[in-house]
Amino acid sequence: MPTKDFEQTIPFRQVPGPFGPRWIPLVEVGVIGPDGRPVNLSLLFDTGADVTTLRADLCYLLGAQTWDEGELVETGTAGGTADTYRYMGRLVVFGRVIECPIHLAQLPPNPLVSGLLGREVVFDRFGFGFWESAHELYVTMNP
C-alpha cells in the first residue's frame, strides 16, 4: 500500500473578511510570459475550480493584447455561469513547469489574489492534503 507522505507544507494566509479574519490557501505560481520569464502571482488553491483562472487584466502574461483574444467558453462559477477566454499557458507550480489551460475572466480586483489555481492538468501532477484547523495545505510531488 502506498504511503501518503508530503514533501511541502504551505501555510494558509490570514486575510480580512466581512465577519473578521479568515484563513485561505494561497499558492505562489509563476506564469511564464512571452519573454520566457515567470511572473509570480498568488492564486487561491481551489478544488472547486475546473480550470486555472486569472484576472482579465493579466492577459499580457499570456501574450494577448486584450483579454478576449482567446477561445470564448462559458464557465460555471459559484454564482452561475460566466464568459471566459481560454488560452494555453505555462505555469511554475511547486517547482514544476506545467503547460495547461488558463482562463481569463472579469474577476473583482483583489490585492491578495490574482486568480484561482484549478484542477485541469495541474492537480494530476501532484498529491494534496489539507488540515483545515491547522491552516495548512500539504503537497507531494509523487501522487
What's this, in brief?
By secondary structure, this protein is an all-beta fold. 0% of the residues lie in helices and 51% in strands.
Q: Can you count the helices?
A: 0
Q: Please state roughly what percent of the residues sit in beta strands, choosing from under 5%, 5-15%, 15-25%, 25-35%, 35-45% or over 45%.
A: over 45%
Q: Name the shape in a single word.
A: globular
Strand order of the largest sheet: 4-5-10-6-9-8
Low-confidence stretches: none
- Output the CATH homologous superfamily of the domain at 27-125: Acid Proteases
Order of helices and strands: EEEEEEEEEEEE
**Strand elements, count:** 12
Span between termini: 13 Å
Helix- and strand-based class?
Answer: mainly beta
Rg calculated over all Cα atoms: 15 Å
Looking at the overall shape, the CATH architecture of the domain at 27-125 is Beta Barrel
What number is the mean pLDDT? 93
